[in-house]
Design brief:
BamD-like, mainly alpha, Outer membrane protein assembly factor BamD, cell outer membrane
């Protein structure tokens, strides 16, 4: 019974709000509509405020009130989590009001809308990449802004997300037994994120994948591919001399060297005597 009454009350409240909004929109007094739009905006009734602003903005275009109206109209979209539309509106604001004191804010918010569209790591990361480029452009354009730190932090977050996505792709190759692809993918990950605190882990993963690839290769190709593992191990030693993973790298190098010697001995045995 209580739930039923709650539904009825919500329905009545919604009908009442809709009725009031309808009366506002039907009014021919634009000043009254503007006053109501701003009142709805302050009350955080963004959907209703958006409708009223949209209805009267054409009549105020070019007036001294238009900038503030457009600014609030843009935030109506943002506060309803309509980030695609909000991004476009923030961009339009900066283009229409280049001398506004709110340009820097709207420039940042446009970038932030892309950030808010950044999906889960397993999905397409186009918005994430776009966020990085736009935030970097913001930092370059507004180097003295108080928002630079936030922009830089967001760039770092986005880069970590892209790094994680690339890592998962490389790991998937490995898990599927596609060791050559995994080795190349881990190597690319290392090149793309050279300053990552996991660089040595990515290099080790690449070495492991190259080793598995060599191990499963046909005999005629194994020596060449074990030599590739050894070369990768030496590169690891040069670059990550202080890594805690050195022991594992030495093990792969030793295993590869032993495998090559074994292959060479077998070739000697198979060589016919004259």
């Amino acid at each position: 019974m209580k739930i039923f009454l709650q539904i009825v009350l919500v329905s009545l409240l919604f009908a009442s709000c809709t009725s009031k909004l309808g009366k506002v929109l039907k009014s021919k007094d634009n000043e009254y509509k503007l006053k109501m739009a701003e009142q709805l905006y302050v009350q955080k009734k963004y959907n209703q405020a958006q409708q009223v602003f949209e209805d009267i903005m054409p009549f105020y275009k070019g007036s001294d009130k238009y900038e503030d109206m457009f600014y609030k109209y843009t935030y109506c979209a943002y506060n309803q989590k309509d980030f695609v539309n909000a991004e476009s509106l923030f961009k339009t604001f900066t283009e229409n009001f280049p001398n506004s004191t709110k340009v820097e804010e709207c420039d940042y918010m446009r970038c932030y809308c892309y950030f808010k569209q950044s999906p889960k790591v397993d999905l397409d990361q186009t918005p994430t990449s776009k966020t990085i480029s736009l935030m970097q452009a913001f930092v370059n354009t507004h180097p003295e802004s108080s928002r630079v730190k936030d922009a830089t932090d967001i760039i770092d977050q986005c880069r970590k997300k892209l790094e994680l996505k690339e890592f998962k792709s490389a790991q998937l190759y490995y898990d599927l037994g596609r060791f050559k692809s995994a080795a190349v993918a881990f190597a690319a990950l290392n090149e793309d994120y050279p300053d990552s605190d996991k660089s040595d882990e990515y290099k080790l993963a690449s070495v492991k994948a190259y080793y598995k690839y060599a191990e499963e290769s046909i005999l005629d190709k194994q020596t060449e591919r074990f030599e590739k593992v050894i070369a990768e191990c030496r590169e690891f030693n040069d670059r990550f001399a202080d890594s805690k993973l050195i022991g594992e790298i030495k093990n792969f190098q030793s295993l590869s060297e032993t495998s090559i010697k074994k292959l060479q001995n077998e070739q000697i045995k198979e060589t016919p005597k004259r």
